[in-house]
Design goal:
seven-stranded mixed beta sheet; four-stranded antiparallel beta sheet; 4 helices
């Protein structure tokens, strides 16, 4: 109790401002007393979790694996470290539905398709179509000039195909083939696309899953309204690049898992008691679609949190 009073006198707002990083057993006990005895915190389990430790939606932190990237782009399969749903720093279990699974090498996908603004488009040849254990869609090894790279394979892509990449927006829409990459403003309405850039020149951000595609609906000024696989409508700049066609491995979502052991091989842990009919958890209730989301400029990056450590007494 005395240690708690001393800690409150020294750091009255330690739970709101700082995240104490304990080092010794004394620090663990002191940190626990500060957390449980402080009046500004609730007593429920949900209220006793450090909010900055939990994954935020849309940040890409799935706690499934860490990919060890090289300094420069390479087609060599990269090593990975499986996290099994644990935080790589604290070791806490964050995602309970992740664990186990067959360890796969990671193939580095070239998300940027950059082409000339004027003149003839760049032509590349598909060398090989292969499976990738770290994603649902198949991937393609592509060669152009003196470079090799991986891209996501489309529905009918095969070895020997020639794909084109251009950044030019002509007055008349182009007639593109599967696998070609063009700006959204250069394509006719109704075209099926995938690998859509969120902002021009930032690389592909949307529509990566197997068998998925987005549809160009209409043009409003210099904006293109696109219907995503979720039926939501997004407004993109006409200069955002996209790849024509539907992604490969269409039967992925229709293929049954078959057994519990097969699900463990895919990297999922057993779960039970998660869904409740009365609350509609995990999207079981039908809700209206949100309005069109306009993407103008990237958001400013959040400042890094300040982490302070308490020295040993």
């Amino acid at each position: 109790m005395a240690s708690t009073l001393i800690a409150r006198a020294l750091f009255p707002y330690i739970g709101e401002v700082l995240k104490v990083k304990h080092i010794t057993s004394v620090g663990i006990v002191l940190n626990r007393k500060i957390w449980l005895d402080s009046p500004q915190f609730g007593k429920s389990f949900a209220d006793r979790i450090w909010k900055e430790d939990l994954p935020k939606p849309g940040t890409g932190r799935a706690f499934r694996r860490i990919v060890h990237y090289e300094d420069e782009y390479t087609v060599k399969p990269l090593n990975v470290t499986n996290l099994a749903g644990r935080d790589p720093v604290t070791g806490r279990v964050i995602a309970k539905g992740i664990g186990g699974g067959i360890k796969h090498k990671y193939h580095w996908i070239a998300w940027k398709r950059e082409g000339p603004k004027e003149g003839k488009p760049i032509e590349e040849r598909v060398i090989q179509i292969m499976d990738d254990g770290c994603r649902t869609a198949k991937i393609a090894l592509v060669a152009g000039e003196d470079k090799l790279k991986y891209i996501l394979a489309t529905e009918n892509m095969k070895a020997g195909d020639i794909i084109k990449t251009s950044g030019h927006i002509p007055r008349i829409p182009v007639r593109a083939n599967e696998g070609d990459a063009y700006p959204l403003g250069a394509l006719p309405m109704g075209t099926r696309v995938h690998n859509i850039e969120r902002f021009p020149g930032k690389g592909s951000y949307y529509v990566h899953a197997a068998g998925s595609y987005a549809t160009l609906l209409r043009r409003i000024g210099d904006k293109i309204i696109v219907q995503m696989p979720s039926k939501h409508e997004f407004s993109f700049s006409q200069e955002c690049m996209a790849v024509i066609g539907r992604l490969s491995n269409l039967m992925h979502s229709k293929t049954p898992i078959g057994s519990a052991q097969r699900l463990r091989e895919l990297g999922y842990r057993p779960r039970s008691g998660l869904w409740q009919r009365k609350s509609g958890r995990h999207g079981r209730k039908i809700r209206p679609l949100p309005p069109v989301r306009v993407l103008d400029a990237p958001r400013a990056k959040r400042p890094e949190p300040i982490v302070l450590s308490m020295p040993d007494p």
